[in-house]
Amino acid sequence: MLQTISKPDNSGFTLIEVMVSILIMTVGLLGLLQTVILATEHNLRNQMRDEAVEIGEVTMHAMKAKPFAMLTSAEKTTQVSSRRPGFSSTYAVKQIVSNLTGDSKQLIVDIRWKFKNISSFHHQVVSIKSK
Questions:
Q1: CA separation (Å) from 87 to 23, 80, 113?
Q2: Nearest Cα residue to 68 out of 36, 101, 40, 39
Q3: Residue 51: which of 9, 11, 80, 73 has the closest Cα?
Q4: Rounded (5°) CA angle 66-68-74
Q5: Which secondary structure element, helix H or strand E, spans residue 80, and what is its range?
Q6: I need a labelling partner for 32 at 20 to 30 A (CA). Which of 13, 72, 96, 131 fits?
Q7: Are 114 and 120 in contact, with CB atoms under 8 Å apart?
Q8: Total-model pTM
Q9: Would you give the distance in Å from CA 47 to the centre of its chain?
Q10: What's the 3-state SS for 84-123?
Q11: pLDDT digit string (tens) for 89-129?
Q12: What b-and-e string marks burial along 114-124, b requiring 16 or more CB atoms within 10 Å of the CB?
């Protein structure tokens, strides 16, 4: 009687190889997740800046629409809430009117806001109105 000896089957992965590959994939996916979070923050910051620019333009158009005599040298600050659904943010809008000459006044709209209550940003719109 002949007895056949078979070779051990080494064609699969060992448990250690599987665990190492899972660890490498996890580190890669965590790096990718951090990139997505960073991109989302930059996108949100840009949306907030765009909204501040829009608020500044609307406020400046309203100031320029007033008659020249109604524009008195003063500062007025108001709070404007964000118009985006699902996100709350407040913009501080300061309107400044200063006399340049008897026939012209400088109009300034200064918008300030915070991102994550850490970083402070501002945008300013400046124009001159004459009689």
A1: 36, 13, 14
A2: 101
A3: 80
A4: 85
A5: strand 74-81
A6: 13
A7: yes
A8: 0.74
A9: 5
A10: CCCCCCEEEEEEEEEEEECCEEEEEEEEEEEECCCEEEEE
A11: 899 999 999 988 889 999 999 999 998 878 899 999 999 99
A12: eeeeeeeeebe
